[in-house]
Amino acid sequence: MTHPIHDQVRSALEACGVTVPEGADLHARTPITGEQLMGLRATTDAEYETALTTAGEAFTAWRDTPAPVRGNLVKRWGELLTEYKDDLAALVTAEAGKIPSEAAGEVQEMIDICDLAVGLSRQLFGRTMPSERPGHRMMETWHPLGPCGIITAFNFPVAPYAWNTAVALVCGNTIVWKPSEATMLSALATDALLGRAAKDVGAPEGLHHVVIGDRTLGEKMSDDERLPLISATGSTRMGSEVGPRVAARFGRTVLELGGNNAAIVAPSADLDLALRGVAFAAVGTAGQRCTTMRRLIIHEDIAEEFTERLVQAYGTLTIGDPSTGESLVGPLVHGGAYEGMTAALAAATADGGELLCGGERVHAEEYPEAYYVQPAIVRMPGQTEIVRTETFAPILYVMTYRELDEAIAMHNDVPQGLSSAIFTTDVREAERFVSDAGSDCGIANVNIGTSGAEIGGAFGGEKHTGGGRESGSDAWRAYMRRATNTVNYSNELPLAQGVEFL
What we know:
Elements: H1 4-16, E1 26-29, E2 36-40, H2 45-62, H3 67-83, H4 85-96, H5 100-120, E3 127-129, E4 136-144, E5 147-151, H6 159-170, E6 174-178, H7 184-201, E7 208-210, H8 215-223, E8 229-233, H9 236-248, E9 252-256, E10 261-265, H10 271-283, E11 293-299, H11 300-314, H12 335-350, E12 354-357, E13 361-362, E14 372-373, E15 376-379, E16 395-401, H13 404-412, E17 416-417, E18 419-423, H14 427-433, E19 443-446, E20 458-459, E21 462-463, E22 470-471, E23 480-488
Parallel strand pairs: 5-6, 5-8, 6-7, 8-9, 10-11, 10-18, 11-16, 15-16, 18-19
Antiparallel strand pairs: 1-2, 3-4, 4-23, 12-15, 13-14, 17-21, 20-22
GO molecular function, one term: aldehyde dehydrogenase (NAD+) activity
Family: Belongs to the aldehyde dehydrogenase family.
Active site: 256
């Protein structure tokens, strides 16, 4: 009997106006059952060249379009995303295995960034600064880059694309998007709605393109000098390949890579609040978020009590088919993720770790090609190499500390630097954690978990997380080039620094 998700996918694609390039090069699959949804044809070399050429041609018209007018396109896109939110969320659930509320939340992030970008279209501010030369004015101005390449990952199939695209479009750029091979249908639907928005507002043709293929297509984009910016979301390994390739041609990158995120739970913490914050951050999206909490550093005085409560909370989790709306934890993306989880648990126990709960595969008889797992908690004697390694699965390593400085040092002693949190009601501890001497991550939270960032702030991290920033704040500057302009409105030609040249 065919799972209802197949009909839901077809209905959602039809509603969004998607024409699927049918073929046998690639296959859309759902981790809910492990079944294939449909075959797709990969983008050919000729189609890729056409996409790059038309994106370049459209750029020359789009950059001359006033920024507030460019904002009208993003405004209309946001309206269509709102109208078709349920259809897009259904595709995200089908391809990424997210529970409905998380899938809908991801689409809401797209809508929210459109709102932000529309406002931004009237606020692409430069600066004016005083000149040392009389009769001169200095200013900085910001200008579009050109066609921007965007590479996204399976776990957030649409939101990071919108973070980049909504902002890049109002900045005057065009878009070439390579989605993950695991979430191609979500990408096609999202792009179709952007295409409808472009027609509705009379935007130039060729502003946006989706190209479908495997990692070799991402490598091709990374090497393509016609793409002055590559924004890539994925693993640290992927970023270590994309970054040098783009740098070799003096291109720009926005890299959003792995996270090995931790929370410190202090003795003064509201333990009820901390329990909820830790549980969602650790098991949401089956541990397949870059902001998933993977390490828990608890004060010795409360470690036993809090760990016991957390294990009990894990025992209440409903794990299963996310499309029913009755589960809290959906599947891992594929068998490779499950193998990575079991290998990490084996390494942790070999290092002296104690598996407190979880790690088992469930629903294997019902869905032999899908990989549902019980989220795991492992008590560790210290921060071993496996703890310092990101495993993209729901494993939470628990360790203890005595002094806050010890906890912060342990927290920072990993290669990744994306998100972090402390649970405390001591203002001194909270302020120290977010100070220069505290968390070394791009995101540092107090009394909330490590996941669930809002679009108003810049999103991204440090160290092996890549250093990129997307979404709000001044992240828009990554999609523009800066020019310093000096205007001489006098009848003289004085030189800077008092230089005389006759």
